[in-house]
Specification:
The chain has 428 residues and is of the alpha/beta class.
């Protein structure tokens, strides 16, 4: 008897088995798809919801084809990344005080990483409009600064075709001058001196700019930015920081708190917010050693041992950098009448607040930001729960490692700090 038909059937069966195993190996999702098809049609897979109607699933994640994507304007240069910084809620201080304490994250400005980006850019643009600066002509910008304005100027100078020459006190954190050198600026670290001394860092910058312009052998001109007296300073905050805060708060805030070095931030923001809101309080945060607290409280700068205008000691007796001053500036005076109150903050309180913010919120900021937050928290206690307070976080703590944070110390593993350790016990 011929066995070929039986052999053919056996071979076909084996081929079918091999093909099945092969498909399973090469397409492992076939079995999963098969099992899905066996799910009862009266349930919504994965949701546990029963239905007797047919459900049509549609993919809405690809609503637009790539060739129909929206046009997004790409910023032109690093200077286009200045401004529009986020406003966020500081969770720990808000929860502890019962007020909504909001921080304007000015350390996220895209050029020099501080609110001085706004000032530097506006001063340069204004000088260009006035014909005092010409890009790529050899013009050099001179400025006296404790650091942040210099860093912003050095960055934006390079972006717009200028050189920067920065004069700063030698007692400022070394990481600031190191960064300036990396940005290509010339850096003069001069001994701390009173403003009446020709070697004061501001006076030296002014004289160097004049010498540059008068020297026919040097290319370009010397331009003294003069951040303390230049009206473009407070105007940058009137045109930028103030409107941004107003918009981000939806026009609802009860107080604005900020320190003052040149005074441009608090003056510009106050001049914008006051006419637009009914009764917002503008409060100055002032470090120890500064005379601005007395200027607001008593109308005159003074020390218990010295009359105004005769001070010959260092600028400010504090480890806080960037805010605090013992002389009147045009920028501060532009908004002084709009400042309702002032809060004095000690170095110890500032250091404790800096550790608190790192411990509770993961916020690592510099000394002036810590002063602002102490004042904001103290004001929250005064006003009572339910108020909304906005303050400024100026720059990162990485610029303050060798001085402020060296004394503030490490947070370590601590998690149980109490706000009373900074502000003292609550007054019943």
């Amino acid at each position: 008897m011929d066995n070929r038909p039986r052999l053919y059937l056996t071979a076909a069966f084996l081929c079918g088995v091999l093909l099945t195993l092969g498909f399973k190996d090469f397409y492992p999702d076939l079995e999963r798809r098969f099992r899905r098809r066996r799910v009862p049609t009266d349930t919504v897979a994965g949701a546990g919801l029963a239905t007797k109607d047919q459900i049509d699933l549609e993919d809405h994640t690809r609503s637009q084809k790539p060739d129909k994507a929206h046009h997004v304007e790409v910023p032109e240069g690093i200077e286009a990344c200045v401004g529009n910084t986020p406003l966020f809620r500081i969770k720990s201080l808000s929860e502890e005080t019962g007020c909504e304490i909001l921080a304007k994250a000015e350390f996220l400005n895209g050029a020099g990483g501080s609110p001085k980006d706004r000032v530097a850019l506006n001063m340069i643009k204004t000088a260009e409009e006035q014909g005092l600066l010409t890009p790529h002509s050899g013009d050099t910008i001179y400025e006296g600064t404790v650091g942040s304005t210099g860093i912003s100027l050095a960055t934006i100078c390079r972006a717009r075709g200028y050189l920067a020459h920065i004069c700063m006190p030698s007692d400022q954190a070394t990481e600031k001058s190191d960064l300036l050198l990396k940005l290509g600026a010339v850096v003069d670290r001069v001994p701390p001196a009173p403003i009446i001394d020709p070697m004061h860092f501001v006076n030296r910058a002014r004289s160097l700019a004049a010498d540059h312009t008068a020297d026919p052998k040097r290319p370009g001109r010397g331009y003294f930015a003069d951040q303390f007296e230049n009206q473009a300073n407070w105007q940058s905050h009137y045109e930028g920081t103030g409107p941004e805060i107003f918009s981000q708060c939806g026009g609802k805030l009860d107080a604005f708190v900020a320190g003052a070095g040149t005074g441009g931030t608090i003056a510009g923001v106050a001049r914008f917010l006051k006419p637009k809101l009914s009764g917002p309080r503008v409060v100055l945060a002032d470090p120890q050693g500064s005379g601005l607290f007395n200027r607001i409280k008593n109308g005159v700068m003074f020390h218990t041992l010295e009359r105004e205008g005769t001070r010959r000691r260092s600028q400010v007796d504090t480890i806080v950098e960037g805010i605090g001053i013992n002389r009147v500036t045009a920028n501060f005076e532009a908004g002084r009448e709009l400042i309702d109150d002032a809060i004095k903050v000690s170095d110890e309180e500032a250091m404790a607040m800096a550790r608190w913010l790192a411990e509770k919120d993961g916020i690592f900021v510099g000394s002036s930001s810590a002063v602002n937050c102490v004042a904001a928290a103290r004001l929250a206690r005064q006003l009572g729960p339910g108020n909304r307070i906005v303050t400024i976080l100026c720059d990162s703590g990485t610029r303050h490692l060798s001085k402020f944070w060296a004394q503030a110390g490490n947070v370590g593993g601590r998690t149980e700090s109490q706000l009373e350790e900074i502000l003292g016990p609550r007054q019943e």
